[in-house]
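LOG
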Amino acid sequence: MKLLIILRGAPGSGKSYFVKQNNLEDLTLSTDKIRLMYSSIYIGKDGRDYITQRFNKRVFELLYKMLEIRMQNGDTTIIDATNTKQSSVSEYLRLAKIYSYTPICIDFSSIDYCRLLEQNKSRASYKIVPEEVIKDMCENLESSKQWFINTFKNNYYDYYEYYGNYAGVGALKNIGIDMFCYNLEKKYLCKWHTVNNMVVFSDLHGRIDKVKEYFKKYPYSDDTDYFFVGDYLDRGDYNKETLEWLIENCEKTNFHFCEGNHERHLRDYVYHGLDSVRSKEFSDKTYNQIKDISKDKIKLFLSKLETHFYVHNGVEQFFINHAGTSRFCRSLFDSANNLIKGVGEYKDIDEVANTYMKNNSMVIQICGHRKASNIKLGKTFYALNSEVEKDEPLNVLIYRWYNGDVKVEQFNTFIHTTQ
């Protein structure tokens, strides 16, 4: 999922232990491990083993490149480094903004200093850091701590303070180290939205005219939450009007937007330039329609995109995403691409739905992206997508709390029907 978890603390403070105990190695980019990929252990003049700092520039260049690739894939990523100064995380935050990631800081620097020195000495010989270096790092960590608190706000966690425990890594075994990751998943990946009335729009593909047909029949209401499953541009003829409407409405608290696979072209365009876009359709058609819209306004809209929404009203529960998946995605290990691009092949949506419904008889999944054999594939799966760009009607799922009824209506520019 789109979480960037930045670990911060001196060597021996518990960062790598945290990663290992939670089996998070596959999600972690470690500067020390990259250093060891560039060079074997060095022997110092004192006869001790060292991890060389000689290739630091290359180490961070590779780390940034790997991080960006993981962000393009929508993978949760953990940065295991000391991160003593604010300048050390500026590139992480820049990339997080581009790819709509939530940056989280877990700070291990409040560990008792004497315990820190003990733990540093107990590490593998080549990982032991001289005490004078540890002291300088701790001073830098303390002097920049307030900046990290102010920058990450509610996404900043003092790890040892979180547990009310300053005894060091050895004590973590006794308090259930995995509870921290459980709480991260619960807060960031499993948060539920409470609604009364709910409306879900399928892929728009530049056909905002069909959305406006819905609002002609059902005027906007503050008491209704409006969800959009993604793929807002390309293929259709009204990309400019569609994007302008989305920008105009994206800051309303009852409008919610999933990220679709076509949003990558829009993101590449505004952050990296038209030459970076790998879609001929976007470059030849969509761009010409939207090129006069402010990039800052487009960035605002992109910042509102989410991979998924869990929704409930006290009776029914819904799982809304773009592409459809065969199970819930609420683990740090789940890639956002499962929801943005979908699992399996495009043609596999019926099979994906059947697998999901075998294991989920209560939570109704609603997605777009792929056109299925039916809009309603079973009791707990709706695949709303239609070829709106070819003048097929826009499928809109409507739920009203007062009668508990889920229905899908179809809207076209001149006609609309009910299923």
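LOG (cont.) second protein
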Amino acid sequence: MTALTAIFSTVARPPVGGISPMSSVRSRSVPRSIRSTRSRAGGTTGSPSVTPLSYQASNSSRSTAGSLSSEAQELSRQRGMARPVRVVYTWAIVGMTITEKILAAHSGRPRVEPGEFVSARIDVLMGNDGSVSGAIPVFKKIGAARLFDPDRVVVVFDHFVPNKDIEAATLLVGVRRWVREQGIHEFYDEGRNGIAHIILPEQGLLVPGDLLIGGDSHTCTGGALGAFAAGVGSTDLAAAMALGEVWLKVPASIRFTYHGTPGPWIMGKDLILLTIGRIGIDGALYQAMEFTGPVVSGLGMSERFTMCNMAIEAGAKSGIIAPDEVTLEYVKGRAKRPWTTHRSDPDARYAQEHDFDVSGLRPLVAKPFSPTTWRRWMRWRGPRWIRFSSAPAPTPSSTICASRLEFSAGRRCTRIRG
């Protein structure tokens, strides 16, 4: 933990009985002009309303009442204080989360705090057939002629292809023409396409430490690589295409820790469904969901992508998992450029922390149309079906009983009754 100390000259009674000035001086004894201000964490600190270091430089040599401010002198007169003493205020700068570190690095700041607004440099910008078609008119309307960097823009057709009608086909003709005009090399058209959120990491276009902005809410999938990945609308996408920067509010982080020994067939999908069942579809509004713990460390990359992909289903701005050996093994041989790894500091602050013991957890199925509602599903046991009742699952205790279909003795279940 790093500490900053500001030294202020004020007045107080001399120490009595070995009690230090710090223990004998209350905040109400400090002149209003240098009283503590509200901290970034929401509490109070001893930091003054002026810049601490400049205040220290201009005041640390003062040792007489005559050198004090008129307000301090008046306070001394009213309270009959004998002589001025130097009061030392110390406040701590706590660590940062992985999300805050990435945003600080991309905004040119030594640190950022939740709630701050920053203009951050973009490493990768992704648009799909739907979002790019909506962004092009805005791009032209704001007077932009060229992309900030065609090599950092990826366009993937994964929503409207194959085209279902003439209208969709005509729309994409215009997008293809614009892509050629802008010289975008990473263009994944029909026949070469796939799911955009998977193409980026598979093709090495997204690496740990990146800041990715995408014209799709599930862009948060990329957080599995230890990158900040978030979706934006077509208007913000157009501005980012022109400027290479994005204006963001730094999200607070929520840490989710998973431990224990899960049951067979448990995957990342089960963990994220369990999580959303706990916090609800609005439980992480505009916050960064940080997934950690030994169970997450044991997941493969495909399952990590799944967990981060569904962060948006809880209203989150992003989902993220700190890079480890599994991540780096996936990145090696794919990455088209260097990467940077970040981890949350031990003393980083979180808006919330949730701990999950997934021992004995069985596979889960979400009942349409919400990931927070479960159907206690059927299981195959020998020659007959066993059916469970339907019920919501706000807590793990009521979701652990939910199950996907199990396969037993080589029999394959082909349909579900009821």
